[in-house]
């Protein structure tokens, strides 16, 4: 590995939120110095640093970017969710509007790109809806902007697999407390009150560049998710990836990397 590239070890940031102390694991990947702003990777509803696997590091190394990967509260090696704590319907708003600003301030991150996947993509959109002037732009892969039957059906199916098969043991490879990660995500998405969750009106406040990407075969949502973003933010660039499900960084990593790199490097 050349001297200007690095994969630092996992570190921890201690931040205050809701009168409690959170430890968030994070890791720098890619170039030590880059002509481009830092890219912050925001993981999916069952994700973590470890579950991204090598994608952020490989992507950043290939294109000379500096990346920051971290695990949200309740995920990976970050502070786990207390067993009886239920995420509120507004949990993504809280992550975007309350936790991210404190985390970025703690690390001294200014004008980053956000690269969000699934719930992380929704959080990126919500952050941009309030803090567009503080961003270089956002990339959202398989975002959610409203709740569809297809999404609920797949999340309900995931619950059945978690309870009856080996999903818990598989997730234990990526989370210190797999129950914290799984039930925090699954319970709120299947809460009847969450059915009316919708962030379409929030999108109209976004003024930074937006790239919205989705797999044609996404099992967790229809293409109305990204087309809906473009209707609210007409300048949004849309990419539909063929032969691709809900995780473009796994199903079509090369195509995804090329699209994202081109989008970012042409906005310097």
TrEMBL record:
Domain AB hydrolase-1: 39-257
A Pfam family the protein falls into: Abhydrolase_6
Single GO molecular function: hydrolase activity
UniProtKB keywords: Hydrolase
Top-level taxon in the UniProt lineage: Bacteria
Keyword Hydrolase annotated: yes
Protein name per its UniProtKB record: Alpha/beta fold hydrolase
